[in-house]
Every structure is written in C-alpha cells, then in structure tokens.
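Hi everyone, sorry if this is the wrong subforum. Our group has a chain we'd like a structural model of before ordering constructs, and none of us has done structure prediction before. Sequence below.
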Amino acid sequence: MKVKEVEKIWGVSCGALAVYKCMPLLREAEASNALMRKAWMRYPVLGGVFAGAYFFGLQLPVKFF
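Answer:
Right subforum, don't worry. Here is the predicted structure as tokens:
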C-alpha cells in the first residue's frame, strides 16, 4: 500500500514538473497560433502534458529499477 502511494506521488510530481516546464512553450504558441489563444484550449493541452508525464513517471521506476 505504501509503495503505491509513493508511486502515485512520484507520478504526480513528474506531471506537475512537466506542466511547469510546458508553460513557456504554451505561451509562445499562444502568441503565434489563434487556436491556442482560446481560453478553453489551455486545459486540454496541459491535461495531456500532465497525463503523459504522469504515465511516464509511473513507468520509469518499473523500467529501470
């Protein structure tokens, strides 16, 4: 049970870091693309980045350790 909690915390921290690092790229895309300027478009992009990094973060310890 504790291992699963640590794995989830690791995945969430990986996802949060990816979203933090993605924000400048998203702002740059908003400056050049009209679709990215839409307010509703920010959430699916950030959600996808978070989901991808969360999944990668969960798989990382399994693959290497």
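For your construct planning: The chain is about 85% helix and 0% strand. The radius of gyration is 14 Å.
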